[in-house]
Specification:
By secondary structure, this protein is an alpha+beta fold. The chain is 40% helix and 47% strand. The protein has 3 helices and 6 strands; from the N terminus they run ααββαββββ. The chain has a 6-stranded mixed beta sheet with strand order 2-1-6-5-4-3, covered by helices on one side. A hairpin with a 2-residue loop joins β5 and β6.
């Protein structure tokens, strides 16, 4: 019985969890590419760490959405080039370059499975010179 249970987890459940987390990070990347704070907010955890140009804070979902919307309004997005995407211990992360009208930002997205959902916990924007 233990062997069957282990087999089911390894073959059925784990690949599904991986697929869901990759799919959700792809949705976040798509929203990032459009500068769509409202869509990104759908994936926010209860509290989100946002770092913009070295100013870091932990914000509620509504505050984080407002900060992100303000960032996108002041820095209209032209494109997002993903440099790396991966998974580690139930976490999904992505780094890339967000090209805006005001410059290029090295962007990091960190998501973690919480319950049955993959939630965005950390978002960082660092201006490249």
């Amino acid at each position: 019985m233990k062997t069957i249970f282990t087999f089911l987890i390894a073959v059925v459940i784990l690949p599904y969890m991986s697929f869901v987390s990759i799919e959700e990070v792809d949705d976040v990347i798509s929203a990032l590419n459009k500068g769509d704070a409202a869509t990104m907010a759908k994936f926010f955890d209860n509290n989100v760490e946002i770092s913009i140009l070295g100013k870091t804070g932990i914000y509620s979902t509504k505050q984080a959405e407002s900060i992100l919307k303000d960032f996108f309004d002041n820095n209209p997005v032209e494109s997002f080039e993903m440099l790396h995407k991966g998974e580690n211990n139930g976490a999904t992360y992505c780094t890339g370059n967000l090209k805006t009208k005001n410059g290029v930002y090295r962007t990091t997205v960190f998501m973690k499975i919480k319950g049955a959902k993959n939630v965005l916990q950390t978002l960082r924007f660092e201006l490249l010179k």
